[in-house]
TrEMBL record, chains A, B:
Span of domain Peptidase M20 dimerisation: 224-370
Disulfide bond is among the record's keywords: no
Keyword vocabulary terms for this entry: Hydrolase, Metal-binding, Protease
Name of the protein: Peptidase M20 dimerisation domain-containing protein
SUPFAM superfamilies in the cross-refs: Zn-dependent exopeptidases (SSF53187)
Domain of life of the native organism: Bacteria
UniProt GO MF annotations: metal ion binding; peptidase activity
One GO term (biological process): proteolysis
A Pfam family of this chain: M20_dimer
Glycoprotein listed as a keyword: no
Lineage: Bacteria, Pseudomonadati, Pseudomonadota, Alphaproteobacteria, Acetobacterales
NCBIfam families named among the record's database cross-references: PRK09104.1 (NF006579)
Length: 471, 471
């Protein structure tokens, strides 16, 4: 390790409290992007980040986006030294993260206010910070910003040219990202993108996520009678949209757990046996993935382990169901309408738009004359796999291995980070997904947390990666 | 028509405004029995009715019930002249109605406050009173009370001995009724019960409902993971209780619309061809029942018309569905739990307790190891058919035919009025269901209404029936 980098790592050690305080400032902003009444909070989080970047010597600005709803601004920043570095042939990295967070319902299950971050020691003695967005993705975004701060503080400059793109709609469709990338191609193009929005396979093993699942997220509302009906007077004779919704949803998986839409598995390839073996070492049985959340066995497509089902197999899930009477007691009605939020997770090779159309055609074909369906798209993005020959992959794996004292591995991820695929599509460059979250961080759930080990090892990891990517 | 009765009918004509004002007073009390925070309102409605009865020369009292929740009081009243009439061999009738009402959600669909009754003229020129409970059942209860008032006002006495039983839990399981009847057998036993909680087949044809469907109402909650999960990280591998709920519900009807529970149709008899013909005259096609609510075709069991499906065939309905994210936008979770309110409508011959057990066994058999089910019963009552040889049936049909100028018919009803069966079981007497509601009264729905024609012809009908039942 160079003495230069060692000095930066020592700076990180000595200035941890201030870094944590800055993260808490960001976590206090309730930037829930899918809820309209939090629009001003999203803008506030964007402004806070732009101010941070300016304080580090970046030119930074909020960039309006209006191709689609909700239209929360992008934060774009460039190190003032970038031009000089690029002229001398230095590597240019674009860092991507998102400042928006998921909703906080059900609020009653939170032990503390989701937007009042607090430090807690878990049962296994780990120190964590609890807040909505702590792990997904504010804590992770701040690991990279703090690494930049440390390099600048100690040496007055970064090892490479660095630009930032911080999004505010990752949790609500993110439909503005691709047009924004395309409209700002020259400004955003770099040698490689770094994305910090993924998890480690366990507490000690660093990883680069080399595959992601895409998503087709759909909301359907079925509408039948012009009003809720008395289920005695009309029961049997009147179309029941809640029952029909259950039939439609139930028909989307067969008895082997496979999705039934025609053409759904077109383009899907079986996982490589060597990769499966590596994953089996990390997750020897289904419980290794599931027991932390109170489950024991893989529920989806037969013939694949739990980790394979999430990392490399497409799926269908019900995310929300609504219809009829939901309060205390009982109400004998046939609801006039019923709706569901549904999503398909896609692997590389599947075409999201074709699958969306196949889904809608399937629903339409199931509708009797008296029932109408209204469809709302909540996003469609393909699966993604990193180019194994990326010149930046090895350097990053090595930097991670050094920081954590354990060989970094390549893993899959069942979630969607459409930006990785969109960066490749729009900007023609690779995206390396390096993240420090843990499986038990409860992202999207009540009492979301981020470990201080994740946070500080994360900052140190980026300090090393920035050095490793320099030419 | 006797001059004595004609005088009473003229009194009804001349005192309509005051009768309507009394109905409005009762409608202003929000006696929603299934919602705990309305318990005091239920008691208030009971007290209001007891006061009315006392004003008419009845001994009346609130009777506590505590065999089951929610425990709203019964109102019991006896005409002070009963003993004298019984000694002289006069007929004794027990009138049953209920003072509780359904919840009012969704409130936004009401054009006026559900508990501020208002008079309205409908598009077809009919005057109606709009309020929750206007038709089901406060308006109908008041037709009988006003008929008694008119007899007493004009002649100082009723033609027959009259007792009242007014319930406060008809819309919330009504589990206290049967034990209350059994515990008060001697006090409540009469020659015949009169129940006013049913509808007419059209605007002009009076009817006695001679069959009713019973109900098995069940709530199930499926519980899987210990928290909502990220649907990317866990999707496919984690059990999804919302999807499983849809599978379970979907499996409860086959492709012919028949309920699939083993033994479900045991004891069910096909309807008599003569009865079917009478019903076909009233409802020549499915649209005749359904078009008023925006539907066109019978959705349930194939081989039966819409009216047969509701009047004489058992059914299964989804009354409410809840699971996962239900707010604006999208949340990529696998819900930890999902629940449904479900009901079976039963015809005479089916055993409600056997059907409840068959349902629960079916659900339990569908559960994988990682999912638990919690069951809550919201009532179980058998179907009902009137004894065709009741000595009071013909007299009542004739009185109705005279009042409406059209021959009264015997109809079925798809709804449940467990009291009819329970009165037969506990008190060993027949119950005649005579009601003046209309199909478009929107009972259980927003903007419930009761026509002034229903109300005043209803009062006059009871004036005649009381005379017709006298020996």
């Amino acid at each position: 390790m160079s003495e230069k980098m060692a000095e930066v790592l020592r700076y990180v050690e000595s200035n941890g409290d201030a870094a944590l305080e800055r993260l808490c400032d960001l976590l206090r902003i309730p930037s829930i992007s899918t809820q309209k009444h939090h629009s001003a909070d999203c803008r506030k989080a964007a402004g806070w980040l732009a101010d941070e970047l300016r304080g580090l010597g970046f030119t930074a600005s909020l960039r309006e986006v209006s191709w689609a709803e909700p239209g929360h601004p992008m934060v774009v920043g460039h190190d003032e030294a970038n031009e000089e570095k690029l002229q001398s042939g230095q590597t240019h990295v674009l860092f991507y993260g998102h400042y928006d967070v998921q909703p906080t319902d059900p609020e009653v299950l939170w032990n503390t206010d989701p937007f009042k971050p607090c430090l807690k020691e878990t049962d296994d003695g780990r120190k964590v910070i609890v807040a909505r967005g702590a792990s997904d993705d504010k804590g992770q975004v701040m690991t990279f910003i703090e690494a930049c701060r440390a390099w600048k503080a100690v040496h007055g400059e970064l090892p490479v040219a660095v630009s930032f793109l911080l999004e505010g709609e990752e949790e609500s469709g993110g439909e503005n990202l691709l047009p924004f990338l395309k409209a700002n191609l020259e400004e955003l193009k770099a040698d490689v993108a770094l994305i910090c929005d993924t998890a480690m396979p366990d507490r000690k093993t660093p990883a680069i996520t080399t595959s992601l699942r895409g998503t087709v997220a759909e909301e359907i509302e079925l509408v039948a009678a012009c009003q809720d009906l008395h289920s005695g007077m009309y029961g049997n004779a009147a179309a029941n949209p809640a029952f029909l919704l259950c039939q439609i949803i139930s028909g989307l998986r067969d008895e082997k757990g496979r999705v039934t839409l025609p053409g759904f598995y077109d383009g899907v390839t079986e996982p490589d046996e060597q990769v499966r073996a590596q994953w089996r070492a990390l997750y020897p049985d289904d419980a290794a993935l599931l027991e932390g959340v109170g489950l024991s066995q893989a529920a989806g497509e037969r013939g694949f382990s739990a980790i394979e089902q999430t990392w490399c197999r497409p799926s269908f899930e019900v995310n929300g169901l609504t219809g009829g009477y939901q309060d205390d007691g009982f109400k004998t009605i046939i609801p006039a309408r019923a709706s569901a939020k549904l999503s398909f997770r896609l692997v590389p090779g599947q075409d999201p738009l074709k699958i969306r159309e196949a889904f809608r055609a399937y629903v339409r074909a199931a509708l009797p004359e008296d029932v109408d369906a209204v469809f709302t798209s909540h996003g469609a993005s393909p699966g993604f796999a990193v180019n194994g020959e990326s010149p930046f992959l090895l350097a990053t794996l090595e930097a991670l291995s050094s920081e954590w004292g354990q060989r970094a591995v390549m893993t899959g991820c069942g979630g969607s980070i459409p930006v990785a695929e969109e960066i490749r599509e729009a900007l023609g460059m690779d995206a390396l997904m390096v993240g420090f979250a843990q499986a038990d961080d409860r992202i999207h759930s009540p009492n979301e947390q981020y470990g201080l080990d994740s946070f500080f090892h994360g900052i140190r990891s980026w300090v090393r990666i920035l050095a490793a990517l320099a030419r």
